[in-house]
């Protein structure tokens, strides 16, 4: 009987595992990257994120491309026209959540931003000496620069320094626990700060007379919040284009979820590449901070206590997981009684 119970328990856990991330977010080996090209073989983007057919890239000029074929490290893309973007006025007035637009931060409330780092080792070769520093990567300094800038603008900031090494396909599973813990603080947005792996020219630029790295926004298309995550990214890009023209490196929608199923305002940002300098990345992320007030509905320096209401989320994924758990539990209980029901006794 004990063996039967153990078998049913293992079966239930295996079935439950199917409700997790469908795709492991992977990257190219060190020193390699993918190149996205259009129909005329012109390079439109480079990234260290693994590319799959169906991925979407929205360029800095809002041109939308869909990956149709991947050969080795070259991704061939089809142009799909200009992406429909919200107006600056729409960005300032509201943030799209689910079916309707509603204010993100209530008047006189101090917004909260949570920051963490899935890839704790990511570093900048020209400044840090190498591209990977186990558990203490230069990426933490970039996150710190973002936190300091946001606090100076009146935000409440939670900067998490948890180590999620090693840098492998399970890093997002480990950082998921961190993100879930941070979301208990009810932040208005949660940001996973990374750096890319490309030649320096992909991100290097000058904005407002400063040498900085561009900022690329990454959205996972394999999660139930992908629509609201993308809308959040588009609003961030519109705000960047207005506040700091030239800072945006576009929006990439990749096969994966990047833990963004946890919140409609979860965002992954790529701040330069390992070939750029860390000071340039720090300046780039500081400029990115300029976009957040208008996107989160903050006009001027906020005052008061942090908002206590949780973010409205798309609960479709959570509801599905709960239903599966209930079904599995019923199967386990039913199986237990069936296995332990002996033959009917005879008089």
From TrEMBL:
Keywords: Membrane, Signal, Transmembrane, Transmembrane helix. The keyword Disulfide bond does not apply. Residues 1-24 form the signal peptide. The chain crosses the membrane at residues 318-339. Coiled coil: none annotated. The keyword Methyltransferase does not apply. This is Sporulation stage II, protein P.
